[in-house]
Amino acid sequence: MEKILVGLKRVVDYNVRVRVRADGSGVETDGVKMSINPFDEIALEEALRIRESGEAKEVIVVSIGPEVAQQQLRTGLAMGADRAILIKSDSELDSLSAAKLLLQIVQREAPELVLLGKQAIDNDNNQTGQMLAALWGRPQATFASKVAVNGDKLKVTREVDVGLETIEVDLPAVVTTDLRLNEPRYVKLPDIMKAKKKPLDQIDASELGVSADDSIRTTAYEPPQERQKGIMVKDVAELAAALKEKGLL
Amino acid sequence: MSKILVIAEHDGSALNPSTAKCVSCAASIDGAEIDIAVLAADGAAIAAEAARINGVARVVLVNNPASQHSLAAAIAPQVVALAAGYSHVFGPSTTFGKDLMPRVAALLDVNQISDIMDILGAHRFKRPIYAGNAIITVEATADKTVVATVRTASYSAAAFDNDAPVEDVSITAEIPQHTRFVELQAGSSDRPDLQTAAKVVSGGRALGSAENFDVIYKFADSIGAAVGASRAAVDAGYVPNEMQVGQTGKIIAPDLYIAIGISGAIQHLTGIKDAGTIVAINKDAEAPIFEVADIGLVGDLFTVVPDLQAALSN
Ligand SMILES: Cc1cc2nc3c(=O)[nH]c(=O)nc-3n(C[C@H](O)[C@H](O)[C@H](O)COP(=O)(O)OP(=O)(O)OC[C@H]3O[C@@H](n4cnc5c(N)ncnc54)[C@H](O)[C@@H]3O)c2cc1C
Ligand SMILES: Nc1ncnc2c1ncn2[C@@H]1O[C@H](COP(=O)(O)O)[C@@H](O)[C@H]1O
């Protein structure tokens, strides 16, 4: 293949314990550590491995987000991507609009493979890859734990509720990653320096002719109901008694 | 009035319990009329089962050889063809529904609502984001089809005590040939199903090896529980992926959940928020799991678990 396109979303780091703002207007993101969505790092790692195995020539990372999402793209370039595209958008985007914007890039770049995360850990939507595949009229292989390139086809093993399903898809195709696909590499300092010289193009989302979708909107945020801390028992006998008393065993 | 189409999940021969949970969710919309769509290669038996779910007005059966392995690429265009005339299309938030429903939504040019956990009205829903650290209210416009997945752990299955009519329907939908099924490696287990079991015992990284995980299996078997695991235990290869509980694994709501040698990372806790009683066994008294456990015991699992098994069998 010539090109692999990888989506990198800038999200609140997975170690941050996210809280709803006191006034319910959203979640607290001020001063919070931001990172590449963990599934997208896995997507990029997979793209790099495919390129390194000689099956692809170029890896392009793309992010839709505010100007600062350049940071995540630079990290992607430091990991080894060849070039980056930032689709600038200051408003929080829904998955359908994200898919439509990605489709615009897909049509310009004509990649044979698009690798995305299975879900963004901020909205937990798990939609964009499937939507892009639908709009593009191409196959989707979601929740991938193994990807094998075979000429103009891919064999993808998917993590499904009952176990592992393997499907074969014709390229071009969209693949979304699960956690066990690979372990992303660490970025080394010299790579960060090199990444500064790699091309990073910016396009304004409004230039791509995609109108934001208004079919759903968020009207309120609230904290979840917390579970209360229970009791501590001191030994097995007490535990067995407590379980029996509750009628659970 | 709301007309809701629930997409049945099945394995080619039997209905998945997630379908009756979707029906429960749909039924909490006032005055909803609920149909179930069965898309299968040969779905007569599945449709007959679906027709018994309380609250269902009609089962729409579409037999098509292309539906054999429930691939989203093949099912989505058929769902789109059926969706006309419905105000809502619901599927379960299982891997089947998560794969399929966004593809359906995009073809209908609407966004999809993921993981409905509460219905506030025909077009107002609650759903979790940020691994359940925030709950949002989402409003959908009334002039477009609502496409959604139902967080199955938030609903109990509707009863099976109905006799709804089954209608064989043929539809015209262009089904792409670009996606082909190769194989399915399903974990074979005589144990209760993790997603529907009343009791679940899970093990974490502390087990240390696949062999040691036997401690968990033996204990689970002695109390008739399903077996789950943390991501760390799955990643380390102690158990297969389908046993993972959490944000990116299975979201479950058993009456009893026993977490053994699991620290209680937020991503794991997301999967068990709706459990009735959570029991934690961990050698570290500071482990975060104790913050949410109803009953906690500090101790070494390799002595505590066999002792507990013995104590309970007396
Ligand atoms: C994007 C993302 C998604 C994730 N999704 C999930 C998910 O779906 N599910 C999930 O589980 N995790 C998920 N994780 C991983 C999660 O963050 C934790 O790393 C993981 O849950 C830890 O597993 P653990 O509790 O088994 O291991 P650890 O955190 O290592 O805990 C092991 C525990 O065992 C105790 N222990 C050790 N020896 C003994 C003994 N002999 N007896 C008793 N106790 C002992 C220790 O005190 C410790 O508390 C995700 C992470 C990310 C980044
Ligand atoms: N704003 C974005 N920028 C880049 N990629 C995105 C963006 N939104 C979604 N994606 C990709 O789509 C995947 C699934 O996102 P979601 O459907 O929102 O859960 C993510 O893991 C990314 O790979």
Short note summarizing the structure:
With 249 residues, chain A is of the alpha/beta class.
Give an overview of the whole structure.
The complex is a heterodimer of chains A (249) and B (314). By secondary structure, chain A is α/β, with parallel strands linked by helices. Helices cover 27% and strands 31% of the residues of chain A. Chain A has a 9-stranded mixed β-sheet with strand order 9-8-7-10-6-1-4-5-11, with helices on both faces. In chain A, helix 2 links the parallel strand 4 and strand 5. In chain A, helix 3 crosses helix 4. The model of chain A has no long low-confidence stretch (mean pLDDT 96). Chain B has 314 residues and is α/β, with parallel strands linked by helices. In chain B, 25% of the residues lie in helices and 28% in strands. Chain B is built from 9 helices and 16 strands. Chain B has a 7-stranded parallel β-sheet with strand order 5-9-4-1-2-3-10. In chain B, a hairpin with a 4-residue loop joins strand 7 and strand 8. The longest helix of chain B has 13 residues. The relative contact order of chain B is 0.12. The chains are: A alpha/beta (249), B alpha/beta (314).
**Biggest pleated sheet of chain B:** 7 strands, parallel
Order of helices and strands of chain A: EEEHEHEHEHEEEEHEEEH
* End-to-end separation of chain B: 56 Å
Low-pLDDT runs of 5+ residues of chain B are none
Q: What's the gyration radius of chain A in Å?
A: 21 Å
The average pLDDT of chain B is 97
**Strand element count of chain B:** 16
Q: Walk across the major sheet of chain A and give the strand order.
A: 9-8-7-10-6-1-4-5-11
Q: What percent strand of chain A?
A: 25-35%
How large is the count of helical segments of chain A?
A: 6
Q: Name the shape of chain A in a single word.
A: globular
Determine the structural class of chain B based on helices, strands and strand pairing.
Answer: alpha/beta
Q: Tell me about the largest β-sheet of chain A.
A: 9 strands, mixed
**Number of beta-strand segments of chain A:** 13
Oligomer: heterodimer
Binned, the helix content of chain A reads 25-40%
Backbone structural class of chain A? alpha/beta
Secondary-structure element order of chain B, N to C? EHEHEHEHEEEEEEEEHEHEHEHEH
Termini separation of chain A comes to 58 Å
